[in-house]
Amino acid sequence: MDSNDIVISVENITQRFRVIHERPDSLRELFTRFFRTNAQFHDFEAVSNVSFSVGKGEMLGIVGRNGSGKSTLLKIIAGVYRPSAGRVVVNGSIAPLIELGAGMHSELTGRENILLNGLLMGFTKAEMLEREQRIIEFSEIGDFVDVPVKQYSSGMYMRLAFAVATEVDPDILILDEILAVGDVPFQEKCFERLRNFRESGKTILLVTHSLQQVTDFCDRALLLDNGRLMLNGSPEEVVSRFHSTALPNEHELIEAAQ
């Protein structure tokens, strides 16, 4: 890969978290126990010494068991977490769809959230009003656009968030299982938009339990296990390795997701 085409460079990333074993009864007790020398805790590495790069116009799938570090890795790339070690270099604007409902203010209506998200991404009010109708039409939420989003179903959240993220035209789109909550026709419409998005030179990172989506849409894939990068290769290679390392009861879950 030509260095000029690299839009995401992940270099020896490690993310550690501290787990306290005692259960405090109050915030004050939590604070005091954290700083006690005999407090019971341990550190664990959610992501451990991971390195890879992503090129312009590439769609990268990331797979692994629950708890393998996929979502943590995306949050590091999106700037939600600062890594404990290593560094991430991102060239371009990012639209992260990492947690369902993240970036939405529950008390505001869908229409108000469209404007809010656009303003947070650096667009003017006039620019977002020009995009507003296209976002509403793609999301298919109809009159619910003027209802507070706290009343939305998970599918409606996803529709609106995806429509906003792809309409504001970021350089990099990060998707963490968000498409799993949509119905099949809307998922197909989303993946058609992702194809067009990629063909225009945009970069996509996709975390999904659907291995079929990885082989159908991704150019390359990563396999994570216990925070470590086990394989960086073609979607077919990664899916095959994942199948070979899955636990017996996981095979049923894999098949159900496809």
3D architecture notes:
By secondary structure, this protein is α/β, with parallel strands linked by helices. The strands form 2 sheets. A 6-stranded mixed beta sheet has the order 5-6-7-3-8-9, with helices on both faces. Strands 2-1-4 form a 3-stranded antiparallel beta sheet. Helix 3 (110-120) packs across helix 4 (125-139) and helix 4 crosses helix 5. The longest helix is centred in the last third of the chain and has 16 residues, at 184-199. 34% of the residues are buried. It has helices at residues 27-35, 70-78, 110-120, 125-139, 154-167, 184-199, 211-217, 235-245, 248-257, and strands spanning 6-20, 41-55, 59-63, 85-90, 94-97, 172-176, 203-207, 220-225, 228-233.
**Residues in helix, %:** 25-40%
Structural class: alpha/beta
Radius of gyration: 20 Å
User: Which runs of at least 5 residues are low in confidence (pLDDT < 50)?
Assistant: 252-257
> Strand order, biggest sheet?
5-6-7-3-8-9
> Total number of β-strand segments?
9
Biggest sheet layout: 6 strands, mixed
Q: Any idea what the shape is?
A: globular
Rounded to the nearest angstrom, the distance between the terminal CA atoms is: 31 Å
Number of helices: 9
- The H-and-E topology, N to C, reads as EHEEHEEHHHEHEHEEHH
Average per-residue pLDDT, rounded, comes to: 87
Strand content: 25-35%
